[in-house]
Amino acid sequence: MDILISGASVAGPALALWLNRYGHRTTIVERAPALREGGYSVDFRGDAHMSVLRKMGVLPDIERAQTHMGSMWNVNEAGKKLVAMPADLFAGDVEILRGDLARILHDATSSHTEYVFGDSIASIAQDADGVTVTFERGPERRFDLVVGADGLHSTVRALAFGPEREHTSYLGLYCAVFTTDNYLGLDYTGHAYSTPGKMVSLYSARRNTEAKAVFWFGSPPLDYDRHDLDRQRELLAEAYEGVGWEAPELLRRMRHAEDFYFDSISQVRLDSWSRGRVVLVGDAACCASPLSGMGTGLAVVSAYVLAGELAAAGGDHRAAFAAYEREVRGYAAGCQESAVGVSKWMVPESRLMAWFMNQNYKLLPYLPWKGLMAKSVRKTASAISLKDYGVTRPAGPAPRRRPSDRAS
To answer: pLDDT digits over 127-184, tens only?
Structure first.
């Protein structure tokens, strides 16, 4: 089949890799002009995540690019270290920058997947035999299936399922991330400073050659243009006005960051993940939010199952989509549930709560439930029994060239 995938971050290329191996033709369309290299660290943990990465053949590359991060330190306004958060509580079995992961998945699929950057789907028209897709820039094309792997703000979901506001649930936080110099000289570690309703952190990346600045803050829902980065920078500066530690310097550096990212922390909840020949995967279907620590693992697991069920159903998309949802929905619900309530302790709303959490962090290495916390997260990440769908061939056919390529 000819299958169009919207989104070139994680879920889209992961799905394309499997579809190529089952002999399908894949095209990935991505609104950005090139791969997005920025973003925060993401991790994989537990048997389900790791087994899929091994089968994909990308685990060695991920391990070579992993962050090797140590403990994250909570600091006071003067930068004095107060409490260390052990890496095993948040880094999983392997941790990698989202941009590095996207590059690995792109390189693993680029020889058999057609990538179309700088464009986006404008309309989808389904009929009994396929889907006619128009694009914002490119010519109209025809596909057998369309997959939305385009994240929290999925264009495919909006076109096929309705407005975003009907399917998203805001968890009360906003997050901003950008890359800057490792000017604090952090050595495979990070520092985090909290005030009521806010937390800003800086951690080293790419073998200490750079650093990631991450801002979190609680707020009622904000009204802004998702594509207006200048306004988003202003919102962050307003939220952090008067906050100490390194916040003023990081806000100054934010003005020049090329990979600035700002978004709400939200979840996606849908009654169904498919409409006819259109199906959703990853955050577009069931965003758990970064608070869960499960979103990236959920994306690669979902991609594996969706492609496998299409193969098992012999291309019958109706049967495959239904089976895919039966296999993954309960797992996704567990991943989403793990994020609910996390904001309360991650960004405490009061000084008393912040003090209470710091006392708990200090005692954590000596308390019996430290191991229980790590086991609970791993249990959630592993709470799915994956089928062995088999692979009919090591790679799919060469990608279909674009009309403009044929004309030239």
So the answer is: 999 999 999 999 999 999 999 999 999 999 999 999 999 999 999 999 999 999 999 9
- Rounded to the nearest angstrom, the gap between the alpha carbon of residue 138 and the centroid of all alpha carbons in its chain is 27
**For the segment 88-138, what is each residue's pLDDT rounded down to a tens digit?**
666 778 999 999 999 999 999 999 999 999 999 999 999 999 999 999 999
Token pair of 13 as six digits: 């290329």
**Cα–Cα distance between 217 and 376 in angstroms, integer?**
26
> Which band of pLDDT confidence, cut at 50, 70 and 90, is reported for residue 366?
low
pLDDT on residue 290:
83
pTM of the model: 0.92
Q: Which domains does the chain have, with CATH numbers?
A: 2-350+373-407 (3.50.50.60)
Distance in angstroms (rounded) separating the CA atoms of residues 12 and 120: 14
Q: How far, in Å, CA of 344 to CA of 28, rounded?
A: 38
Query: Which of 197, 271, 277 minimizes the C-alpha distance to 240?
Result: 197
Helices 11-21 and 98-109 sit at what angle, rounded to 10 degrees?
Answer: 20
Helix (H, G, I), strand (E, B) or coil at 26: strand
CA dihedral 371, 376, 381, 387 (to 10 degrees): 100
- The Cα–Cα gap between 154 and 76 comes to 39
**In contact, 311 and 389? CB cutoff 8 Å:** yes
